[in-house]
Amino acid sequence: MHLHRLMALMLLPPAVSAVMVANSMAQSTPSEFAELSLLELFEQTIDEPDGGGTRSPWSFAYQYRFAEFDGYLDGTRSLSYQDVLWNGPGEQRTAKNFPVVPTRITQSVHTVGVGYQLDDNWQLYLSVPYVRQESDHISIVRDYDSFLIESHGIGDTSVSASYSWNDTAEHNWQFSFGVTLPTGSIDEEGDTPRAPGDQQLPYTMQLGSGTYDIPLELSYQHSGLQNFDLRLAANIRTGRNDRNYRLGNNYTLSGRYQFDLSPTVKPFAGLNLQYSESIHGQDDDLLVNAPFPYPASITNPDLYGGTKVNVRLGLLWQVSQDYRLNIEAGKPVYQDLNGPQPKEQWRSAIQISRSL
C-alpha cells in the first residue's frame, strides 16, 4: 500500500462516520431520518469505461427522502387523536393523554455525498444532509387550537470508510464504520403553547443528535442469475449531549431482491426489520411544572422507539455508464411502538449517483 494511503487509514478512526439508514424507524427524529446506507447510496455497479480506460477514484451521490407520520399507536393498538388528547379538567389526566397532540408530521432530507476509492478494498465517504420537518398540532390551550411548528437546517455531517473483500463478479462483502459528527442543531426553538414566546422544541424537531455516534454496517451483495443483497446495520450513540440526553441506538436487518427487466433497468423489492431504543435522559426545558410534566407525547423520552417491518418497492436504472438512478417507496406492514407515538404512513426516496 502506498504511504499516503496508509497515512489516510491511520488518521481515519477519529474522523470518520458512516452514512447508514434505517429505512423505517419508529418515530424518527430528523437526525435519525438523515442516516444513510453506503450500500444503497454508493452502489458499486458502475462499469469501467470502454476501451480499457481508468475510472476516476471519485464518486458523487445526491438523495432526497420524504416521510409522513399520521395517527397513533400504543404498542400495536391504533389510537385516534381524541384518544391521545386530554380534554381538560372534566376528563381524567393520565400518563398517556396530553393537552397538546401532534397530528400530521412530515420529514424531508436532501443529502449530498462524495466518495473516494483509496484502492481495490478501501473507500472513504463524506455526506452532508439538509433536513426539514413540519408538525401540525391540536391542543386545548387558548389561542393554540391548531398550530404548526417547523425546523430546518444542516444535519449531522458524516465521514465514513468501507472495506470490501471477496469482491468478485458474483460476490461482494463490505464492512463500513465511522463516527457521526454533531453538526446539526439541538437548540431549535419555536412558538408552542408551553409558554409565551419561543421555547425549546421537542426531540422530533431537532436537526442533530448532539453526540458523536458510531454507525456500523455489514453487507453482502450477490450478482448473477439471482441478484440480491443483505444488510445488518447499527447506529450506536455515545455519551449524552449538552441537553442531558442521547437518542436511542438503532438496529436494522434488511434484504433486497432485484429483477432483471433489462441490462440497465432492475426493479427491486425489499423487506426491512428495524428496532430502535427510546431516548436516554431528558431535556428538562421541555417539561412543565405540573403533576404530569409532559405537555405532549413527543416531549416524553420514553415514548420513542419500537419495532417496525417495512416493505420497499423500487427501480434501479443505469441511465448511462456514469449515472445511476434509484427510485423507491416504502410502507410499514407492522409497527410495535413505545406509545402513544405517531405512526409512520409511508416514505419515498429518489437518488442519483455518478463517477466523476
Corresponding CATH architecture? Beta Barrel
Oligomeric organization of the protein chains:
single chain
Principal-axes geometry comes out as: elongated
Q: Structural class per helix/strand content?
A: mainly beta
What is the assigned CATH homologous superfamily? monomeric porin ompg
Question: From N to C, what is the helix and strand string?
Answer: HHHEEHEEEEEEEEEEEEEEE
Number of domains: 1
Total number of helical segments? 4
Strand content: over 45%
The number of strands is 17
CATH class, anyone?
Mainly Beta
Radius of gyration (Å): 22 Å
Describe the structure.
The protein is elongated, with a radius of gyration of 22 Å. It has 356 residues and is mostly beta strands. The chain has a single domain, classed as Porin. It contains four helices and 17 strands. Residues 1-26 and 44-52 have low confidence and may be disordered.
In short:
The chain has 356 residues and is mainly β. The chain is built from four helices and 17 strands.
Question: Secondary structure elements and their pairing?
Answer:
Layout: H1 3-10, H2 30-33, H3 38-41, E1 58-75, E2 77-79, H4 81-84, E3 100-117, E4 122-139, E5 146-154, E6 157-165, E7 171-181, E8 189-191, E9 198-200, E10 214-222, E11 227-236, E12 245-246, E13 250-258, E14 265-276, E15 280-281, E16 306-317, E17 323-355
Antiparallel strand pairs: 1-2, 1-3, 1-17, 3-4, 4-5, 4-6, 6-7, 7-10, 8-9, 10-11, 11-13, 12-15, 13-14, 14-16, 16-17
